[in-house]
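User: Predict the full complex structure for these chains.
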Amino acid sequence: IAGITQAPTSQILAAGRRMTLRCTQDMRHNAMYWYRQDLGLGLRLIHYSNTAGTTGKGEVPDGYSVSRANTDDFPLTLASAVPSQTSVYFCASSDSSELAGGWGEQFFGPGTRLTVL
Amino acid sequence: GQNIDQPTEMTATEGAIVQINCTYQTSGFNGLFWYQQHAGEAPTFLSYNVLDGLEEKGRFSSFLSRSKGYSYLLLKELQMKDSASYLCAVVDSNYQLIWGAGTKLIIKP
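Assistant: Here is the predicted structure of the two-chain assembly.
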């Protein structure tokens, strides 16, 4: 059982390029999330999806888009990358029927380290 | 504004006990999570508190006081593998999850 996987592991990208970060889970969780993690800051939610076919904006959605065509996949797209999007990106999933108003115990992928030059 | 405060870094000795504090100022409260994150790895769930008191889980315990806006994570019998960052996160009254910046715990032999 893989749990939750992300690809690529790391990427160096020229500013202005388009990039899609991939995320796949095999736990049949209904909720999925994208976070960015920057030094000295807490995890910041970019976008989320409570169930397949629906998505919502988090704290820092500008410059990012997501889709949720099925339960397992939740790709994150940077339409035109900028240096401020240099970060570590984590995808997570949870069974949102558990705990804390639907947040649940989140299972995180290994992360994608993205550098935009 | 919403705020979660944790010490940036703490140092403790192998075999000892350490308490990592988390104070929060949020619009309401619907639960508090603790996660562990080893350097270069993903966060992993440790505990969840929604009622006041102490929740014990092996060497780790988590305490909550809602009236004081305060939680702590207590780690006993510290092992070198406990060197990691510990993240506190609070669910507010709008069911937003707010993360603290984390506490880096360094264990020395």
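The radius of gyration of chain A is 13 Å.
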